[in-house]
C-alpha cells in the first residue's frame, strides 16, 4: 500500500467567506440549514457573518461539497456562482469594474486573485481565435472541489454579463476537470453552451473579441489607486506555494490530458529533469511515487461516483486497459476496485 511522503505541512491557504453569500437561502429551499452544514465539517458559522472574514480553502471546499450532499442538490455551487456579481469579489471589485475592458478586468483579477483566494490560479490564454480563462486550486491535496469549480466558472460568466451589460452573453464552451455528473442538463441550461467534463482544466472559452468588450459605466481614473490598494493588501498575504504542490498539480493535469511524464512536468516548470528529480529527493519523494499517489487519490474519488464505469475510471487515470487499473488499485488499497466501491457506495 502507498505510504505518505516525508514533507513539512504548508501554511494553510485561506479565502474570503463572503464568497458563500446566498448559500443559506439555497439550502433553506431544500430544507437544509447552513448552521448544520457548518457543524458537520467543523466550521464556526460566525466566520461567515464577518464581511471580510476568511476561512481555510479546504474548509470552503468541504462546506460546499457538504452543502450539496445535505440539500440533495449537486448543482448548488453552479447555482450560487450564477447568482454572484462583481460585489462578491470584495476589495477587488472596484479594480475589476473600473478596468476599461474585459481584458483589463481579467488582468487585474489574475494579478491580485490571492487577495480574494489564496492557493488558486486564474489565468488567461489566447489559443487561435479563442480566449481561454482557466481556474484551479493549486493544492493537490484538494482533489474533490467540483462545487467550488462550478461556482467559480459560473461566477465568471455572470460577472461578464453584468460588467458588459450583455445579459444574454454566452461562452463558446465550458470545461470542467471533474467527470460528467449523472445529470448535466442544468449546466447546459445555465451556460447556454457545450459543456465538457474530464478536461485538463476548468475554463470558460470565448471568441477573442470578448477581450475588447467595454465595461459599463467605468472611470479608469481611479484604477491606479485601486491597484495600489490591492497591492498593499496582497503584501500582507504570504505565499503558500511549494515544489510538491506544483509538481502534483502538473501530474494532475497530465493525467487528465491523457499522459504524464517527468520530462513534460520538468519542462512545464522550466527545470531540467535531473534538477526536478534532485529537488523531489530533497523533499523525500520521487516522481513515480507522486504519480501513483495521485492516481490512488483520484481512483477513490471516482469509485465513489457509481455512475462511472470501471473502464471509464481506468481511462481517466491514464490506463489503456481495465486489467492494468484493477491490478494497480489492488496494490494500492489491498482490495479490488469493485470491493472498494461496494463499501464506499453503501
Structure notes:
This protein is an alpha+beta fold and 346 residues long. It folds into 2 domains: 162 residues, no CATH class; 102 residues, Arc Repressor Mutant, subunit A (Orthogonal Bundle), CATH 1.10.10. 50% of the residues lie in helices and 10% in strands. It contains 16 helices and 7 strands. The strands form 2 sheets. It has a 5-stranded mixed beta sheet. A two-stranded antiparallel sheet has the order 1-2. A hairpin with a 2-residue loop joins β3 and β4. The longest helix is centred in the middle third of the chain and has 19 residues. The N terminus is likely disordered.
Strand content: 5-15%
Number of strands: 7
Strand order of the largest sheet: 3-4-7-5-6
The low-confidence runs, each spanning 5 or more residues with pLDDT under 50, are: 1-10
Distance between the termini: 23 Å
Q: Main beta sheet, described? A: 5 strands, mixed
Gross morphology: globular
Determine Rg (CA atoms, Å).
21 Å
Number of helices: 16
H and E order = EHHEHHHHEEHEHEEHHHHHHHH
Helix content: 40-55%
Give the mean pLDDT. 85
Which class best fits the helix and strand makeup? alpha+beta
Overview features:
Arc Repressor Mutant, subunit A; 7 strands; alpha+beta; 346 residues; five-stranded mixed beta sheet; 2 domains
How would you briefly describe this protein structure?
With 346 residues, the protein is an alpha+beta fold. It is built from 16 helices and seven strands. Helix 2 packs across helix 3.
Write the layout of secondary structure elements.
Layout: E1 14-16, H1 23-29, H2 34-41, E2 54-56, H3 57-71, H4 76-83, H5 93-97, H6 102-116, E3 120-127, E4 130-137, H7 146-164, E5 173-175, H8 185-191, E6 195-196, E7 202-207, H9 223-235, H10 243-257, H11 262-268, H12 273-282, H13 287-303, H14 310-316, H15 322-333, H16 337-344
Parallel strand pairs: 5-6
Antiparallel strand pairs: 1-2, 3-4, 4-7, 5-7
Helix pairs in contact: 2-3, 4-7, 6-9, 10-11, 10-13, 11-12, 14-15
